[in-house]
TrEMBL record:
Domain of life: Bacteria
Name under which the protein is recorded: WYL domain-containing protein
Gene3D superfamilies: Winged helix-like DNA-binding domain superfamily/Winged helix DNA-binding domain (1.10.10.10)
Pfam families: WCX
Domain (WCX): residue spans on this chain: 266-342
InterPro entries: CBASS_pafABC_assoc_protein (IPR051534), WCX_dom (IPR057727), WH-like_DNA-bd_sf (IPR036388), WH_DNA-bd_sf (IPR036390)
PANTHER family assigned: PROTEIN PAFC, PTHR34580
Length: 355
């Protein structure tokens, strides 16, 4: 059995319905194109009269202006054109929304959804079609994120501090660190000036300057965890504070491995075997990181950081694939943690030896 190709000579093989043509023409107009009946008709493989009918349909619903060129053309009136927004710009916002949905609550979710709707409405039909189902096309796996959606008390704190951040207003907070809680102490009552909201490993933190209250440390610029703030109130009627022009979050956290800024700056050297080396090499762990490649495929990793808190946990996560070369204090700290972990399995080792 044979089929006959009914495509007319000189016409493209692909056939467009009128609805499809109108959609593409609408996209072209929103991109600033001039529609010329003859030239555009050839693109679609239709007659000039057919294309003129399509333009007539568009003129009934859009404000088009006739442009007298060597060939009559139509374009969308400038003042009526949509806000020019690309699909990639909406995609960027959607990615941001997906990766911060653990913040959803009284402020973030109600504000974010209408924004996405407005952005979608600014797109032309073709762009909206390409972004259909964007919620399924982007997915973020976040192991161990803090879920603030179930904590209305923290949502209120977040609102107060973000208002202070955006409007540069001081805020009063009650802050109870893990250390003070373990020692049975009361929260510190502080007056702070929020400088930056920091997202780290699914948690929210604020870099702030201490303006007053129960604080006797030398450093007036500190990092507060949202989870440890029991109460916060933005001083909305106070005068705005002078936001430091030279402040940069990256500079404040430059020496930290993660967000822990406590301790002296130290030179760290780790030997990472050939099995785990590729996984370490493909990521940026710290701005000071440096690698020495070894003949057997292993690497020596060097970095300059302060504080062991997150660094030790990261090293332990590599298990037998890493050895701390220096400093001695870090090597001892990791050894102690490994010995304590191994002690939990001593009974299994004894049972194995007995058999």
């Amino acid at each position: 059995m044979t089929t006959t190709d009914t495509t007319k000579p000189g016409r493209p093989a692909k056939a467009y319905s009128q609805a499809h043509r109108l959609l593409i023409l609408y996209d072209m107009l929103n991109d600033g194109a001039h529609l010329r009946a003859k030239h555009t008709a050839e693109k679609f493989g239709v007659s000039r009269r057919t294309l003129e009918r399509d333009i007539s349909v568009l003129r009934e619903v859009l404000q088009l202006e006739r442009v007298e060129t060597p060939e009559v053309a139509y374009r969308l009136v400038g003042k009526k054109r949509r806000w020019e927004l690309s699909s990639w710009q909406v995609l960027a916002v959607a990615v941001g929304a997906k990766t911060t949905d653990f913040l959803a609550g009284r402020r973030f979710a109600p504000e974010l959804e209408p924004l996405l709707d407005q952005l979608r409405s600014a797109l032309n039909p073709g762009q909206r079609h390409r972004l259909y189902g964007i919620e399924q096309k982007i997915h973020a796996v976040r192991l161990g994120d803090k879920d603030y959606r179930t904590r209305p008390d923290l949502q209120e704190v977040l609102v107060e501090l973000t208002d202070g951040l955006l409007y540069e207003k001081p805020a009063d907070v009650s802050y109870l660190s893990h250390r003070r809680a373990a020692g049975g102490k009361d929260p510190r009552e502080l007056c702070i000036q929020p400088l930056s909201l920091v997202l780290h490993r699914g948690g929210v933190y604020f870099i702030c300057d201490v303006a007053g209250g129960d604080w006797h440390g030398d450093d007036r610029r500190i990092l507060l965890a949202l989870d440890r703030i029991e109460h916060a109130e933005c001083r909305r009627t106070d005068a705005s504070f002078d936001y430091p022009k030279d402040f940069a979050p990256d500079d404040f956290l430059a020496d930290a491995f993660g967000i822990a800024t406590v301790g002296e700056l130290e030179h760290i050297r780790l030997h990472i075997d050939e099995v785990y080396a590729p996984y370490v090499l493909e990521r940026r762990w710290h701005s000071s990181q440096n690698f020495e490649h070894q003949p057997d495929g292993s690497i020596i990793m060097s970095l300059e950081v302060c504080g062991y808190w997150e660094l030790v946990d990261w090293i332990l996560g590599m298990g037998e694939h890493v050895e701390v070369l220096e400093p001695p204090a870090l090597r001892m700290k990791v050894r102690e943690r490994l010995e304590k972990a191994l002690a939990r399995y001593d009974d299994e080792a004894d049972d194995s030896a007995a058999t």
